[in-house]
Amino acid sequence: MDEPTWDADQAARYDTEHARIDTPLTVAYLAELSGGGDVLEFGVGTGRLAVPLAGKARSVLGVDNSAEMLAAARHRPLPDNLALALGDAQTWTTERRFDLVLCVYNLLLHFTTQDAQLAVVRNAAAHLAPGGHLVVENLHPPLRAMEEGERISTLRLAGAGMAISTQRFDWKSLLLDQSVLYVDEDGHRVRQIAQRMLLPSEQDLMARLAGLRLVRRIANWRGGSWRADSSAPAASNVISVYRRAE
C-alpha cells in the first residue's frame, strides 16, 4: 500500500508499545536544529514529539493520515502553538514554510513503493523555508541479515509484554513483510506490517532530486557517528539531516 494508516486499536496502544523510545533526547536535538522556529511533522501520530517540541518552537504543525491517531493526540494537553491536520504526506500542502520538517521514526519506510517515498521527500522539501532542514529517521537493517526467505525475532515491549515477529524480505522490491504477534496482559493480537527498506544512498538521491543536500548523518539523537556495517548483528537507526539551499 502507498498510503499507510493506523486504526483505533493501534492508536490506543501506540504510546505504551513505544514507551522505550527516548523522547526527551529526540526533542532536545530537534529543538536545537529548529532554532526555535516553525516545525512541520509528517506522521505526527499521537503527538509524542510534537507536544513537547511545541514548548521549544515558535509553532508546530502535525500532519497524519490516520484520524484515529490524531484523536489520540488530542487526548493530550495541546499547547496553543500546536495545530493538527489530517492529510497524506505525499500530497498534503499548505502555503506556510517551515524551518524544520520531520519524517522520523520510519515514516518513509511505511510508503512501500519508490515513487511514494520520493513523493514524500519532494513534498517535505517543498514546505521548507530557505535554509530550512529536513530530518529523516529510518531503520537501517544489517544487509547480511536481510536474506531472502523467512526469519523470526522477538522484542520486549514496555511492561510485561512482548512481540514475536515473522519477517519475509524480497530483495527485488526491497519489501519487508512482517506478521507481528503482540502478547501482553490484554491477551494477544496480530498486526500485518509492510515496509520498503531504504538505503541511505537511495534516500540521498531522492533528496537531491528534491533540491536538498545532506549536511549530517548520525546513528542516534545524541549525535553518535553512523557507519554502514553490513555485519552488524542487529538493525540500527540512521538519522539524516538535509538542508534546502538558500
Secondary-structure-derived class? alpha/beta
Unreliable spans are none
CATH fold node name of the largest domain: Rossmann fold
**What's the CATH C level of the largest domain?**
Alpha Beta
Summarize the model shown:
This protein is α/β, with parallel strands linked by helices and 246 residues long. It has six helices and eleven strands. 23% of the residues lie in helices and 36% in strands.
What does this structure look like?
This protein is α/β, with parallel strands linked by helices and 246 residues long. The chain folds into two domains: 8-142 and 197-244, Rossmann fold (3-Layer(aba) Sandwich); 143-193, Single Sheet (N-terminal domain of TfIIb). It has six helices and eleven strands. The strands form two sheets. It has a seven-stranded mixed beta sheet with strand order 3-2-1-4-5-11-10, sandwiched between helices. Strand 7 (162-170) and strand 8 (175-184) form a beta hairpin. The radius of gyration is 17 Å and the shape is globular. The N and C termini lie far apart (35 Å).
Question: In terms of topology, how is this protein built?
Answer:
Layout (H helix, E strand, L loop, with lengths): L7 H10 L5 H12 L3 E5 L7 H5 L4 E6 L2 H7 L8 E5 L11 E6 L10 H13 L1 E13 L8 E8 L5 E9 L4 E10 L2 E10 L3 H10 L2 E7 L17 E9 L2
Helix pairs in contact: 5-6
